[in-house]
Amino acid sequence: MSTTHESHLVGLIGQGVLPSLTPALHEREADQHRIRYLYRPLDLDIMSYEPTQVGSLLRAAAEFGYTAVNVTHPCKQLVMDALDEASDDTQRLGAANTVLIRDGKFIGHNTDFSGFSSALATGLPGVAVDRVVQLGAGGAGSAVSYALLAAGVSSLSIADLDVARAEERAASLSALFPDASVTAFDRGDIGAALGNADGFVHATPVGMHSHPGMPVEASLLRPDLWVADVVYRPLETELVRTARDLGCRVLDGGYMAVGQAADAFTLITGISPDRDRMRRHFLELIAEGR
Ligand SMILES: NC(=O)c1ccc[n+]([C@@H]2O[C@H](COP(=O)([O-])OP(=O)(O)OC[C@H]3O[C@@H](n4cnc5c(N)ncnc54)[C@H](O)[C@@H]3O)[C@@H](O)[C@H]2O)c1
Ligand SMILES: O=C(O)[C@]1(O)C[C@@H](O)[C@@H](O)[C@H](O)C1
Question: Is 160 a pocket residue for ligand 1 (Cβ < 6 Å)?
């Protein structure tokens, strides 16, 4: 037997979480540091919990000895009400994906945004970030926009199939980052928007195995435009492949996936993981078809 001070018991709360690669990434990295660490999926549907009951599930997890959880769709915003504390960025974003359970208190963090920040710094070092165009303003897109503005993007243009969502995101981000220009635009105008952009970030499901295709026409890409995709199943999306073939610097969605896992691991254990090793492990898992 071990106490909560001697070992880590971590969960992933959300819907459809069984295929997640995050548990394997955490456990393998913990093995390398010789710490006792178990990471279990806590699927809402399997456990018959409604998303709105995420607070009850957190309290149950605390009683069962869990020391932390990641939280995913559709609970990242809902969990905010159950927290005792949250980092400044998490409060500003209004969404948490990592909750530390410390002395019965729930402390929220958001490693989606910090994971994308580190992904950008690691995978695309030194790129110009004055003007960025982003497609997709949903869950991943919100964290990515926040990361881009925190990284110093001065002009961020956001489009989404759901025009109201893009407008709402642009308005709330403008309030959070008053020195930056954050605007929503019609996705039909993406050619003009990309015309003078430094980078393009894609955050819709287009390009996933279940939604194959290109989110923008290849003719709109040019070698001096960097391209980041958040989709990582497949890792080599049509966008990533096309952009790379055209000579663009590219960031695949695996960097963000590993970044969020690495940052959560640090928060949970206080240990800095080997991010290159986690990335290699991630690539192995993807190659195995996980
Ligand atoms: N790399 C990572 O760590 C990571 C993390 C979370 C999600 N993801 C991936 O990001 C993608 C999006 O996930 P999400 O959780 O943000 O989903 P979501 O449903 O919350 O948001 C997707 C958004 O894209 C918009 N959209 C869909 N099709 C569009 C199109 N053709 N043009 C413009 N907008 C369109 C939708 O209206 C919605 O606002 C998925 O592929 C998911 O697997 C990656
Ligand atoms: O790997 C997953 O399935 C995740 O759910 C992806 C993303 O939602 C992260 O915020 C979670 O920490 C883990």
Answer: yes
Q: Does 205 contact ligand 1 (Cβ within 6 A)? A: yes
| Enclosing domain of residue 241 | 128-248
Work out whether strand 105-109 and strand 226-229 pair parallel, antiparallel, or are unpaired: unpaired
List CB contacts of 8: < 8 A, sequence separation 6 or more: 30, 35, 36, 37, 38, 67, 68, 268, 269
Q: Looking at residue 72, which CATH number applies to its domain?
A: 3.40.50.10860
Ligand 2 atom 2: residue of nearest CA: 20
ipTM score = 0.98
Nearest to 99 by CA among 90, 107, 110, 91: 107
**Identified catalytic residue from 8, 76, 275, 279:** 76
CB distance 259 to ligand 1 below 6 Å: no
The pLDDT tens digits for 192-229 are 999 999 999 999 999 999 999 999 999 999 999 999 99
